[in-house]
Amino acid sequence: MLMNFVLTQIFNFSFCFLFLPIHGRLHTSTSLSLSPISLPPSPAPTAAVSPSSNANSAIGTTVFNVISFGAIGNGVTDDTKAFKMAWDSACQTEDSEILVPKGHSFMLQSTIFTGPCKSGFKMQIDGTLVTPDGPDSWSKRNSKRQWLVFYRINGMSMQGDGVIDGRGEKWWNLPCKPHKGINGKTLPGPCDSPAAIRFFMSSNLRVQGLEVKNSPQFHFKFDNCQNVLIESLTIKSPALSPNTDGIHIQNSNNVKIYNLLVSNGDDCVSIGTGCYNVDIRNITCGPSHGISIGSLGDGNSRACVSNITVRDSIIKNSDNGVRIKTWQGGSGSVSSITFHNIHMDTVRNPIILDQYYCLTKKCPNKTSAVHISNILYSNIKGTYDVRSPPMHFACSDSMPCTNLTLSEVELLPASRGHVVSNPICWSAYGTMQTIIVPPVLCLLEGNSEVLPDNDNDGC
Ligand SMILES: *[C@@H]1O[C@H](CO)[C@@H](O)[C@H](O)[C@H]1NC(C)=O
Ligand SMILES: *[C@@H]1O[C@H](CO)[C@@H](O)[C@H](O)[C@H]1NC(C)=O
Ligand SMILES: *[C@@H]1O[C@H](CO)[C@@H](O)[C@H](O)[C@H]1NC(C)=O
Ligand SMILES: *[C@@H]1O[C@H](CO)[C@@H](O)[C@H](O)[C@H]1NC(C)=O
């Protein structure tokens, strides 16, 4: 009985789809010829909805299999057009799903997928998506800063157990990248490399289950997004791949990042300006450059970051653990940040706060800075790589850090021999709530006098 119902539903949808392949348009446009939506492929797609491809979908979901739109999936042929057509049809249909089927590898050129889409929209990625193979294969017409962009989406779930492969190696080896030029030099020249997946000006997003690897640059970038859930992803690229941040967010709020496994060549997760209400849990990073807030205040800019929690995570074999980094000369604030229950395993700078961030070592001293306050480090335990001190709080002379709190922090050298163990502090006001190992005797007591009360630093 139930089965009958399901089949009836399915066949109703295929019927609908076969004879009105653009049925979403019926609700949205009376002028077929002027519609911005791509024309249906010729011949018309068939079997877009079939009992087998629909088996795991909720009753009532219309499935748009990219193969029905002409995608080949041999890893070589450019399938961009078919994906765009599948997108246009699915996006205009309530409760629809774009299906990227298992057992195929689809090569896509850099593309912008634009919303908003109808409600209940999903992209089910069970197969593989690959980039063009390196800069020479990148279409000259496309931006080299991004590959797949999702723009103005309100409500979308991207999920599946498929793979997104950025094939970054030829980008990492460009002569402009650190030490990749002749004789190990870094050569000047255009150096743009694409972020693999970018969500821009979007909301109510969920990204779940995928493996994303070898991005030419950031694996995921979310900017100007709200209400985002990112969970159960595996992100992988080599430890020496430049700028391959796992997830970068900026100007975004209400973001939840849960259950990730990340190994890469730059920050595991990085949080840029304009982020607030971010909850990060159960992330395993390493090798990586750790979890980072910043860099902020570049070019004397104002940066505002608040209410960020990172908890129940593991950072191993990484350059940094939990880091806050700002340039001199900025303004604004970083406040209400909690790092809780984080296990460090052989991390070079497990806890680092650096307001003198500078890539060239010759940045001039400036008098303004992003104000850092109300930072809690609690239950952070494990081992540090003995080449650097386990804790480092280098705050601005003119704008000291205030209300740093350490509780249950215990960091031991990962090996014997020459051990650098004394924590470093500069203009850092804060307290130790429990016994801290090693003790941070350099923290200043009380509150800095240079700061006016209740100053929200313009944020
Ligand atoms: C933490 O994340 C890992 C990796 O995704 C997952 O296998 C594990 O079940 C998660 N643990 C919890 C308590 O959710
Ligand atoms: C901080 O962010 C969390 C979500 O991560 C939210 O639930 C909470 O209400 C926020 N707190 C404040 C004071 O805005
Ligand atoms: C900048 O300030 C720091 C800390 O006061 C000091 O050690 C350093 O010498 C200064 N650098 C320059 C270029 O003035
Ligand atoms: C200091 O920071 C803690 C969180 O780390 C916060 O609970 C407390 O209210 C802050 N104190 C002041 C005076 O702002």
From TrEMBL:
MF-aspect GO terms: polygalacturonase activity
Active site: H289
Pfam families, A to Z: Glyco_hydro_28
GO terms of biological process kind: carbohydrate metabolic process; cell wall organization
Localization per Swiss-Prot or TrEMBL: Secreted, Cell wall
PROSITE patterns, alphabetized: POLYGALACTURONASE
Main location class: secreted
Keyword terms: Cell wall, Cell wall biogenesis/degradation, Glycosidase, Hydrolase, Secreted, Signal
Database matches in InterPro entries: Glyco_hydro_28, PbH1, Pectin_lyas_fold, Pectin_lyase_fold/virulence
Family indicated by similarity: Belongs to the glycosyl hydrolase 28 family.
Descriptive protein name: Polygalacturonase
Lineage: Eukaryota, Viridiplantae, Streptophyta, Embryophyta, Tracheophyta
